[in-house]
């Protein structure tokens, strides 16, 4: 009887922690995939000496406007409908990916110049955030911040409702 009580208490404590660990790893993995896409797009722009874009894509072949529910996938390609360099999907069954206003609209395009600088679709300096989150868990947000110089970083946070992030200041 004592053994059953000890097992029950252990499971009561361990299972929620284990679920949090799994969800944290899902968020981190997805955020790392996005930051790798930023780095790839920037590197290809410098290497090829031409503009390369990273954009929302629902079909892994063309850029498209993201639905209100968030990004479903992404692709890296040469500007002007060139060759697709890489693409990826976001696990929309569990994870939401929402862009800050600087990236929302204009077909959700992030341009990297041959100098490695991040620019908007109208060639303005771009400071933006792509938020990766799982609704309703603690420590449920990973913000992938992109600065106009082309540098990207991941920050951890919490947002119970997984709202779209603001532009970084």
From TrEMBL:
Stored Gene3D superfamilies: minor pseudopilin epsh domain
Family: Belongs to the GSP H family.
GO cellular component, one term: type II protein secretion system complex
Domain spans labelled General secretion pathway GspH: 30-147
KW Cell membrane (keyword) present: yes
Swiss-Prot/TrEMBL keywords: Cell inner membrane, Cell membrane, Membrane, Methylation, Transmembrane, Transmembrane helix
Domain of life from the UniProt record: Bacteria
Keyword Endoplasmic reticulum: no
Protein name: Type II secretion system protein H
Compartments, record wording: Cell inner membrane
Pfam (any one): GspH
GO process annotations (BP): protein secretion by the type II secretion system
Topology of the protein relative to the lipid bilayer: Single-pass membrane protein
InterPro entries linked: Pilin-like (IPR045584), T2SS_GspH (IPR022346)
């Amino acid at each position: 009887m004592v053994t059953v009580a000890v097992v029950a208490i252990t499971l009561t404590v361990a299972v929620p922690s284990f679920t949090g660990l799994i969800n944290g790893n899902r968020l981190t993995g997805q955020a790392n995939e996005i930051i790798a896409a930023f780095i790839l797009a920037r590197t290809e722009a410098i290497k090829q000496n031409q503009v390369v874009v990273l954009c929302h894509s629902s079909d892994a072949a063309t850029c498209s406007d993201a639905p209100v529910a968030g990004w479903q996938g992404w692709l890296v390609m040469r500007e002007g409908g060139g060759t697709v360099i890489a693409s990826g999907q976001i696990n929309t069954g569990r994870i939401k990916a929402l862009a800050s206003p600087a990236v929302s609209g204009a077909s959700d395009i992030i341009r990297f110049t041959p100098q490695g600088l991040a620019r908007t679709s109208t060639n303005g300096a771009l400071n933006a955030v792509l938020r990766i989150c799982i609704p309703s868990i603690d420590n449920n947000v990973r913000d992938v911040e992109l600065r106009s110089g082309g540098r990207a970083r991941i920050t951890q946070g919490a947002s119970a409702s997984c709202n779209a992030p603001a532009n970084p200041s």
